[in-house]
Specification:
The chain is built from four helices and five strands; from the N terminus they run ββαβββααα. With about 160 residues, it is an alpha+beta fold. Among the domains are: about 55 residues; about 45 residues, no CATH class. The protein is rod-shaped. The relative contact order is 0.04.
Amino acid sequence: MSDETIIETQDNHSAKIEKFERQLRVKLTEKEVADRANRAAHAIAEIDQKEQEREAANKHAKAQIAEIEAELRKVSTEVRDGATYRLVRCERVFRFRTGNVTETRLDTGELLNDRAMSDFERQLALDIDEEPTSEPPPAQTAKKRGRKGKAAQAEADAE
């Protein structure tokens, strides 16, 4: 937008005066400097906050990507191998007569393991083979009395 005026100069020439605006450098007042410093400080704080939010979002996204990649590797391995791992009901049979233990899958009947019993497992076999009774058989009672001595035998007879 311009304002035009035509004038006569001192030497009798016509001149046109036109008013206009142009972007030029202007010195700031102290108040304007303070206002801009305040705006700059707020802008820096906002940038810092947004950068922290971005870093947190990146870490979260990286963690999610890592989980998805792990799932992809697991599924790819299952596809490649044509199998997966699951809990399967099995049966362990202790054959005390032969001293062997067999482990079998109950879903397919496949024999998983056939091994010798451990000493601990054999001990369990002894406990199972004996019938629990409230009193020892008479032959054992006589043997035990014979080992105890005369004083112990007299006490046992008194009971």
